[in-house]
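Example record

Each entry pairs one chain with its bound ligand, fe (ii) ion.
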Amino acid sequence: MASNKMWYTIAIGFLLPFSYAHTDFFTSIGHMTDLINTEKDLVISLKDYIKAEESKLEQIKKWAEKLDKLTDTATKDPEGFLGHPVNAFKLMKRLNTEWGELESLVLKDMSDGFISNMTIQRQFFPNDEDQTGAAKALLRLQDTYNLDTDTLSRGNLPGVKHKSFLTAEDCFELGKIAYTEADYYHTELWMEQALKQLDEGEVSSADKVYILDYLSYAVYQQGDLSKAMMLTKRLLELDPEHQRANGNMKYFEYIMAKEKEANKSSTDAEDQTEKETEVKKKDYLPERRKYEMLCRGEGLKMTPRRQKRLFCRYYDGNRNPRYILGPVKQEDEWDKPRIVRFLDIISDEEIETVKELAKPRLSRATVHDPETGKLTTAHYRVSKSAWLSGYESPVVSRINTRIQDLTGLDVSTAEELQVANYGVGGQYEPHFDFARKDEPDAFKELGTGNRIATWLFYMSDVSAGGATVFPEVGASVWPKKGTAVFWYNLFPSGEGDYSTRHAACPVLVGNKWVSNKWLHERGQEFRRPCTLSELE
Ligand code: OGA
Ligand code: FE2
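Structure tokens for the complex follow.
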């Protein structure tokens, strides 16, 4: 028995890691759904354990009741009781064997099945890194979508099916994670939320003193001395002996006094320059802000005049025999750079097949480290992806042909079909798909030149968030299941088109599946002849 179980454990221990090559659960919903199933199995196993434990207790109870009655009668008249020979025999039997059996029953471990299940499954549980990753994803979403802490904590998000809220304890946990990242802005927000929920009477094991300790420090770190002092005072009301708080209080008073002194002697001229830099800060919109605004559906830079020149049409792939009788729907999404969307271009069945082929191979997406030239994971690209070759499935091959027919570009020099799954918080920050002049080696191994164009299938709708945005030009493209977008990354001269800089916004609610094909320069010489002018 024991060796059997051992073998089983070892076998599972060897087999499972292949399907979970990397943990990084938080990066994709695909793998997280496996966890839901694991958890369900564990609940069943736990319930079985409870049942076994209950039936064991039931047996013990019955025995105790029986013995209770018996000993009651016996102790009232021991001699009379034992005068019955059967009673004498039964007393011997009970004490010699039955109490021993009861002892075994009491000692019997009913938790075996559950514990061994737990041990096996636990090896594949998310770790601290996953928990931190999921917390950081929440903080990222909060920033990108301008969600106030209370909205997020109460779970009031657009398009959610299963409402869920954060306890004061959860908020405290998020605050602590922000704190360990030295992110005092979020530390303050989340500690404050934890405190607020406790003040509103939420029953919790979270401790106000601890929360105030973090909160006052985060506030101090951000330069709000008087608020830090006020919070420290509050802490000291709850715990007058708190050593650090007492020390901090003295320190804050000292700094405050010093600042007052310095303020008195500051000149008007200094105030003036301060104001000027303030204005400059507001005028200048860094890419990050543009990106986040577009993700929220703000800051779109399309004029009605230009909008009028965006059309939709039936497209036959430039008289491609496969599409003459059944042309496809094509829409202009944007003019400069030109982005077109194909509608109903991949069927639900094809999507399912592609997802099923990709699922077992999904692993954390990587990027080229410009310093080492090696592939690494990066916080700015959070998703899981897999590559599918046309040789492994007629569906993939059919999809490749479709891309070739509709773009007029040779797909034999393209990269394989990349399938990507973004979980909640999954994103890809602004980037170019093509290699810049300062990184000529990026696609050297492929030997097919630079990435001339990008074809991107949307294989799911996304409940909220998850747009593909182009911050340089103020464009955003919303995912729609069954459609695909296409754009050229290079001008006909081979020069990179910097207006194609784009990003995948973090998924706020739901789950995003895409697949993309990067087409390369080689093979397109006669399909898309180059021109002499650089930026044409
Ligand atoms: C990419 C990319 C956009 C998206 O994978 O290079 O830009 O919306 N994806 O997933
Ligand atoms: Fe991209």
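Confidence is low (pLDDT under 50) at residues 1-23, 276-284.
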